[in-house]
Amino acid sequence: MIGKSYFLLSLLQVGLSQEWKGHTPEEVTAQEGLCAQIPCHYSYPSHLANQPRLGIWYNNEKLGKSSVAFHSEDYNHQLPRFRHRTWLSGDLKDGDCSLIINSFTREDAGPYFFRIEFNNQDKYSYIPETWLHVSDFTDKPRIFPADIIAGKPVDISCIFNTTCNGTAPALTWDTATDVPGSASNTVTQHGVTLTYTSVLSLTPSLRHHGQNLTCRLRYPSVSSERTLVLTVQYPPQNLSITSLDIIDASSINIIEGNSTVIICSVESFPASNLTWRHLNVPKNRTSSNNELWLAIPHVTSRDTGDYDCVAENEHGAVEGSITITVERRGSNDWKAGLLGAGITLGVGLSGFFIFKCVKKRKKRKSWK
User: Fold this and answer.
1) How many C-alpha atoms does 293 have within 13 Å on its Cβ side?
2) Edge-to-edge, what's the strand order for the sheet holding 251-255?
3) Radius of gyration (Cα) for the chain, nearest Å?
């Protein structure tokens, strides 16, 4: 009698199963600390459409009060570790039985299956179960910087996307003490994707170049971060002109026929385009490493005059100049000869004066 009843019950379940259908994935992997979501849709006989229903999720391969992860009527039926951490993302009346587990832990991993109960007679467990796996927390926020230019206000965005509507993460900025700024946070949703955004507004200066900006993502039990090294752009500045032959900050004297090298250097980011000009005629150009050498291998009188160095990048320009004076080699030889003749004449006169003094002393002795 018992066997016949079991057989009839099995036939009844087979007949009903043509309408009792569930759709859940075989496996789902969720990161530790985030929320886990098991997509679930179910169908049932149409005559039950207007009947009240109860939805239950079990964290087990079998029915049992000791394994209830979610209960749609009374959370006290749930295991204590699941209370206030599980809910449905949809509506049971719409056939949506998707489960969310907030702040997912390694203890939560395992098999899960859904059961619907309309009354004491119309009940169904949707098998096979879904295996929920846990992985390490690896998600990080992303930083989207704009061009960072000294003296100009800029907004730097830190963004984190998630498809699980659990505990909202906190996005915060960690900046150097001398990088003042203000942050504003927003949350937007597009379809199933939630986008958390924190925008840091600041006005950078040159002293901020090379300093770190860190955006931190925090959940109750896990956290991560992303760091941006500030690269501050600025126009050319501190232009300097140097040479081994330099006399002062603005001029050089070169003997005709000699060689000379003058070097123009500047500070800027990005690197500046540098140009040497003599009498407004370009002599040498470069667009690398903020330094430009101008070599004159054999100086002539035509090289006399002002030499201008112009440095410019997309943010500005700066200019400096130096004057080269060319001295003829012959004029220097004449000066050297005149100096030598003067010295010889002076020595000769001194010797003659000494000779006259000695001669007078001898005459005085002979008179005595």
Assistant:
1) 7
2) 246-248, 251-255, 316-327, 305-313, 273-278, 281-286
3) 45
Distance CA 322, CA 296 (A): 14
In the 8-state DSSP scheme, what is residue 149? B
Peptide bond into 270 cis (omega under 30): yes
Q: Count of residues for the chain?
A: 368
* Identity of residue 241: I
Distance, in Å, from the CA atom of 295 to the CA atom of 28, rounded to the nearest integer, reads 70
Per the prediction, the chain carries an average pLDDT of 83
Token pair in block for residue 174 = 């960690």
pLDDT of residue 4: 38
Selected residue with higher pLDDT from 342 and 119: 119
Q: List the one residue out of 310, 249, 308 whose CA is nearest residue 274.
A: 310
Name residues whose C-beta falls within 8 Å of residue 95's C-beta, 6 or more positions apart in sequence: 41, 42, 43
CA atoms of 48 and 257, how far apart (whole Å): 109
Q: Please, are residues 69 and 86 in contact by the beta-carbon 8 Å criterion?
A: yes
Report phi then psi at 335, rounded to 5: -65, -40
Give the CA distances from residue 352 to residues 154, 280, 319, 366, in Å, rounded to whole numbers and listed in that order.
Answer: 87, 60, 61, 22
Please name which of 158, 162, 156 lies closest in space to residue 139, comparing C-alpha atoms: 162
Instruction: Give the CA distances from residue 179 to residues 173, 203, 215, in Å, rounded to whole numbers and listed in that order.
Output: 11, 8, 14
Query: Quick check: 310 pLDDT over 60?
Result: yes
What pLDDT digit, counting tens, does each position of 148-167 carry? 999 999 999 999 999 888 88
Q: Which residue has 């056939």 as its token pair?
A: 95
Q: Are the C-beta atoms of 163 and 193 separated by less than 8 Å?
A: yes
Q: Amino acid identity of 323? A: T
Q: pTM (2 decimals)?
A: 0.70
pLDDT digit string, tens, across residues 49-74: 888 999 999 998 777 667 999 999 99
Task: Quote the pLDDT of residue 9.
Answer: 37
Question: What would the two tokens of residue 282 be?
Answer: 């370009």
